[in-house]
Amino acid sequence: MGAGRRALITTAITVVCAVTVLAAPGTAFASPTPTSTPTSTPSATASPTPVTNKDLEAVREKLDALYHDAAVATDAYNAAEEQSQKQSAEIVELAKKIVKGQEKLDELKDRAGAAARAQYRTGGLPDEAQLMLSDNPQEFLDGAGRVLQGERATKGLIAELTRAQQDLRQYTADASAQWQQLEKNRQAKAAAKKKVTTQIAAAEKLESQLEKQEKERLAKLEQQAALKAQTAWLDSGVVKDISTKASTEGKAAVAYATAQLGKPYEWGAEGPKSYDCSGLTSQAWASAGDPIPRTSQEQWKQLKHVDVKDMRPGDLIIYFDDASHVAMYIGDGAIIHAPRPGRTVTIAGAGSMPILGVVRPDA
Predict the structure, then answer these.
(1) Is the pLDDT of residue 66 over 90?
(2) Residue 21: is its pLDDT beyond 50?
(3) Contacts of 171 (CB under 8 A, 6+ apart)
(4) Which of 66, 95, 96, 102 is the most buried (most CB within 10 A)?
(5) What pLDDT digit, counting tens, does each position of 220-260 carry?
(6) Tell me, what's the pLDDT at 286?
(7) CA atoms of 3 and 75, how far apart (whole Å)
(8) Distance, CA of 330 to CA of 38 (rounded, Å)
(9) Beta bridge partner(s), residue 327
């Protein structure tokens, strides 16, 4: 272990916590250089200072915070992406309506023009005036009927023409509003993407300061923390009351998720080569024939809530107070999930993270 390793780790954590730019690629943190050295003391190589478990625990907590923030930003990115896709589709449909509306308006104008031309050919006299000039009783009666029909047709044409113009104006206004909202969501996506990449880069930079042995110790600390939380959850006795019987759709969703084990986490991804947490759960349920919202937060908002003691395989467990993570329950107190960057789709203890609640896609 080189001199100043503990100071290096402490400095790295401090830098990340202060939300400052980390060292550029290819450079490393160094211990502070003393401003002066006593002339009476001969220079000597400092003895190695080991990085303690307390230091690594601070690293673990900071990494958890960074990856949690990245997960929140990923949800925001996915939500903006989903909305952008919906708005793009709506804009296309509105464009089709505008084209059809213009065609209908042109047709109605042609009909109105034809009626005007017909009146011109009769000398410009209204149908009512021509009727009064008739001295043939039968012609008068026949003409009266035609006048009434013509008046109704004219009124109908005018009303239809007015509606077509109003519809066309509304379609155009709706399309304009959708374009504006689409631009806002594009900006939201860009901001979320920047935050995701910044948080992940900070976490990776912090991890890069560790030696191989320290990374192994950090991994053990993470495992111990997860095991401690899972044990406490199991000791609560909740699993004894949980049903192991899944619905047909739930079994299909679990089968899909299980087939993805070992595939890498990638934020914003929904398969087939990589996934983020909600990308995995949403695709698993889509494959089971029951599409659900794309993000963990919307899954929490829109799907039916069930008690933990009532959950069954295929149900989704939502984690953290802000619903920033989701996993699929597979039975026996276990979940399948895509944890975070640098990890793969894996099986873990359902109680290894703070549970917000459980939702059921096929309620």
Answers:
(1) no
(2) no
(3) 94, 97, 98, 101
(4) 66
(5) 988 898 999 999 998 888 777 676 688 999 999 999 999 99
(6) 96
(7) 41
(8) 65
(9) 317
Rounded CA-CA distance 16/318 in Å is: 28
Q: Which amino acid is at 15?
A: V
* 348 secondary structure, DSSP code: E
Give residue-wise pLDDT tens across range 149-182. Answer: 555 666 766 777 787 778 778 878 888 888 888 8
Structure tokens belonging to residue 327: 């996993």
DSSP label of 334? E
Residues with catalytic annotation? 277, 325, 337
Pairing of strands 316-319, 355-360: antiparallel
Q: What percent of the chain has pLDDT over 90?
A: 33
| Sequence-distant (≥ 6) Cβ neighbours of residue 67 within 8 angstroms | 199, 200, 203, 340, 341
Residue 288: count other Cβ atoms within 10 Å of its Cβ.
Answer: 23
- DSSP designation for 211: -
Six-digit token pair at 276?
Answer: 């983020």
Q: How far apart are the first and last CA of the chain?
A: 56
Top mean pLDDT of 18-22, 160-164, 212-216, 295-299 is at: 295-299
DSSP 15-49: HHHTTPPPPPTT----PPPPS---TTSPP-PPPP-
Alpha helices in 209-295 (DSSP H): 212-235, 248-259, 277-287
- Condensed to tens digits (0 to 9), the pLDDT of residues 295-340 reads 999 999 999 999 998 899 999 999 999 999 999 999 989 999 999 9
Edge-first strand order for the sheet with 346-349 is: 304-306, 355-360, 316-319, 325-331, 334-337, 346-349
If one counts every other C-beta atom within 10 angstroms of the C-beta of residue 75, the result is 26
